[in-house]
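FIELD: query
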Amino acid sequence: MRATSGLTLPLSFLILLAIGWEIMARRLANPLVPGVGEVCSELADILLSGLFFTHMVITLGRVALGFLLAFVVSLALGILMGRNRYARQFFEPAILIGLTSRALSGRCSVSSGSAYR
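FIELD: result
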């Protein structure tokens, strides 16, 4: 078996991903799923116009706001559930589903990350 370059397999994956993405975009013919060329063109425009960091800051601000909102809601809900038996019984299934799905997604990311040694 011949040894391959350290970049051959990752580049092959990216090329196959781009081909699959383009096939999906063409088959769907939906403006919400642009083709690879459109995305690359828009990315080049954003990078060349100097707006990349502006857009990045806006996006990170939205992410931070989402985490803050989730924290506030979960804190209030936790206090309510700790003080009220009916609230605990009502929200417990949603909490258990959330805990289970987080554990599953964590296991998926850990198991996929273990392939890189």
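FIELD: remark
Helices lie at 8-28, 36-49, 52-83, 85-113.
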